[in-house]
């Protein structure tokens, strides 16, 4: 195990300092539960200052909404505990549902609004007349913790998001450059290269998640948020373009279509990419690519069609690569400007859609609802003095780990470390705290434990441990302005914390846990459904929006495929090939608006066959679909035999070529042209 570096120690000292600052202020202004402020610091604090601030804003707003909900729900329903339980459980579950659909920093607003109402509402059951005062106090304590975390993160050796993001983008583009070299040299379809391109998709999703915090950053790069969005779109488009290039090069090699001139062009593009895609050389490469792009003849051969498709992808590769470097330079400078116009302009102005799984969000919400109800039933049935604590923890834990496919291991780990925290805090509470008489000695006593919690939070593997100790440890310690504790009450409180977590784990196991493979299958099914819809619809479609959605799913799918293991049938899915199908479907939907009616009818027949394939069970594409695609190729050729090779005819032909190669990569070239009007 590696020892913590200076960054980890810095974060540990910052989070512990923020917690002590929140505690000191809370004691100074005589807040009734200062430990709420300390626990909030550990929930809010992030290693990067921009991430802390982005979450802090939404946490404050969410807390105020949750407080208001508790004040509205508790007084009128206090004489009907069943209705109050249902009201708080439904509120928490509904907010969790919205949080899981959002998938941005704004999701914290919904989540905090949900379980804050439970945190305030359940303890107020025994003293409903104090609900307003309790709500105000909790809002003050939680807000104080959030503000202290944000203040320390921003002023004490801040770790801005911008430089980290710029470094991640640079590493991603460097790895993409290596993949480009493999593709252009003909090694793009080797298993090791295919595995690496999936990692690039997952890393692109991580960079996207990191960029969501950039607008809240204090670094120079915070002014480059529009450039980051433009770069993200091009990064995503680069993946299917490279995948298509690898496929076309392999196809031309099998057709003996890689002429010396084409090999020379590919080698020069490879050298340009390896040199960092210098802008000064892109223009000369584009001239050579345009010279190699010959008009399609009236009846082009399959080799000519594949070659034309390769040239199109090569043109896109150079334009996107040039833009990526220009945007990377602009982001690095931090002034939000570009020194040269973008070559691939006009493709990325729209909203970037994200994957939303309403089914799993509803299932998670149901788990939270039932978990809260189960805790309350146990509270009432046993007349548990601290049953409100169990209900609170059930609500929090069902929400906190709801984004995971199987939250139970994390919840049980949280329960285990909460139990360990209870034992350690008990020693501190009854053995050391009676000797503390001022804030300085209190800070000295607490600092080692608080720093240890911060260190544990810096490692993803020990993050749940640090959270359990930092949040529940502070809650169990229950520091107030004077020492007053009783052993029986402390034991009850500890048992309620652990008991509420265990009930949450049990209900989650029964209702919510699905596993990584189930999550992967849902993502694959959602992508297939979108491909079927893209084929059925006859509009022009938005190619970039479709790429954003499919690659967002791909970023979610890659870690789940790794967790599912090599023996799963999902490991054989070519996820980028499915994305290429989608891109070609959108291109065909656009091209059909410029074709004669007879060609449109044949093209629609092929699109309907694609839709039927993706609406059915997962498996290889049928020979019927292959014949439909070949029939559409023949019809488009025949109806537009006199065209110059550009426009709708070219787009339709190359779209069909791309569709055929993505669905039938090992298929033989098309045979003689089908008779016009033949039903395939």
Automatic annotation (TrEMBL):
It is a multi-pass membrane protein. The keyword Cell membrane applies. Its main location: membrane. It comes from the Bacteria. The chain crosses the membrane at residues 6-29, 56-78, 84-101, 108-127, 142-158, 361-381, 410-433, 439-458, 489-511. This is Fusaric acid resistance protein. It holds the Pfam family FUSC. Keywords: Cell membrane, Membrane, Transmembrane, Transmembrane helix, Transport. GO terms for molecular function: transmembrane transporter activity. It is found in: Cell membrane. The keyword Transmembrane applies. One of its GO terms (cellular component) is plasma membrane.
């Amino acid at each position: 195990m590696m020892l913590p570096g200076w960054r980890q120690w810095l974060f540990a000292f910052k989070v512990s300092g923020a917690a002590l600052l929140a505690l000191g202020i809370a004691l100074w202004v005589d807040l009734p539960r200062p430990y709420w402020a300390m626990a909030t610091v550990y929930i809010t604090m992030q290693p990067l200052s921009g991430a802390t601030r982005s979450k802090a804003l939404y946490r404050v707003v969410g807390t105020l909404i949750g407080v208001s909900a508790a004040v509205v729900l508790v007084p009128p329903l206090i004489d009907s505990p069943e209705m109050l339980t249902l009201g708080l459980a439904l509120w928490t579950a509904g907010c969790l549902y919205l949080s899981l659909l959002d998938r941005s920093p704004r999701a914290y607003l919904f989540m905090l609004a949900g379980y804050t109402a439970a945190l305030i509402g359940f303890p107020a059951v025994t003293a409903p007349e104090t609900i307003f005062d309790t709500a105000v106090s909790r809002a003050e304590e939680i807000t104080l913790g959030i503000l202290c975390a944000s203040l320390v993160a921003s002023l004490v050796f801040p770790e801005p998001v911008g430089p980290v993001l710029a470094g991640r983008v640079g590493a991603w583009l460097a790895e993409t450059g290596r993949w480009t070299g493999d593709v252009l040299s003909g090694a793009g379809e080797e298993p090791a290269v295919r595995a690496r391109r999936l990692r690039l998709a997952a890393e692109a999703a991580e960079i996207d998640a990191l960029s969501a915090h950039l607008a809240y950053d204090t670094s120079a790069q915070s002014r480059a948020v529009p450039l980051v969005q433009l770069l993200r779109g091009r990064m995503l488009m680069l993946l299917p373009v490279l995948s298509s290039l690898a496929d076309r090069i392999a196809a031309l090699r099998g057709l003996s279509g890689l002429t010396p001139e084409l090999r020379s062009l590919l080698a020069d593009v490879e050298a340009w990419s390896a040199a960092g895609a210098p802008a000064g050389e892109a223009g000369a490469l584009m001239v050579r690519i345009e010279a190699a792009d010959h008009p399609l003849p009236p009846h082009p051969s399959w080799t000519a069609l594949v070659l034309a498709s390769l040239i199109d992808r090569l043109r896109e590769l150079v334009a996107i690569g040039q833009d990526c470097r220009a945007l990377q330079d602009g982001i690095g400078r931090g002034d939000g400007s570009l020194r040269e116009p973008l070559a691939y302009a006009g493709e990325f102005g729209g909203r970037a859609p994200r994957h939303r799984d309403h089914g799993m969000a509803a299932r998670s919400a149901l788990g939270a609802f039932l978990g809260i109800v189960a805790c309350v039933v146990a509270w009432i049935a046993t007349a548990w003095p601290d049953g409100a604590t169990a209900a609170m923890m059930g609500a929090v834990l069902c929400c906190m780990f709801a984004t995971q496919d199987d939250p139970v291991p994390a919840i049980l780990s949280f329960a285990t470390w909460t139990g360990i925290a209870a034992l350690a805090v008990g020693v501190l509470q009854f053995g050391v705290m009676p000797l503390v008489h001022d804030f300085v000695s209190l800070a000295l006593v607490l600092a080692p434990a608080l720093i240890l919690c911060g260190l544990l939070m810096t490692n993803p593997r020990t993050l749940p441990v640090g959270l359990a100790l930092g949040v529940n440890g502070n809650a169990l310690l229950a520091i107030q302005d004077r020492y007053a504790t009783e052993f029986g009450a402390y034991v009850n409180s500890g048992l309620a914390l652990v008991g509420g977590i265990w009930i949450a784990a049990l209900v989650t196991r029964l209702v919510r846990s699905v596993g990584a493979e189930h999550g992967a299958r849902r993502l694959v099914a959602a992508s297939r459904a979108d491909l079927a819809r893209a084929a059925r619809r006859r509009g022009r479609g938005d190619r970039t929006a479709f790429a954003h959605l499919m690659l967002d799913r791909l970023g979610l799918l890659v870690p789940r495929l790794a967790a599912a293991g090599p023996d799963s049938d999902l490991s054989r899915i070519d996820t980028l090939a499915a994305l290429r199908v989608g891109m070609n479907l959108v291109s065909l939907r656009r091209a059909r608006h410029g074709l004669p009616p007879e060609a449109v009818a044949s093209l629609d027949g092929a699109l309907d066959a694609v839709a039927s394939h993706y609406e059915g069970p997962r498996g290889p594409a049928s020979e019927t679909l292959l014949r439909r695609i070949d029939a559409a190729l023949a019809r488009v050729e025949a109806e537009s035999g006199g065209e110059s090779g550009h426009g709708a005819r070219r787009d339709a032909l190359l779209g069909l070529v791309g569709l055929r190669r993505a669905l039938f990569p090992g298929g033989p070239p098309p045979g003689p042209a089908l008779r016009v009007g033949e039903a395939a």
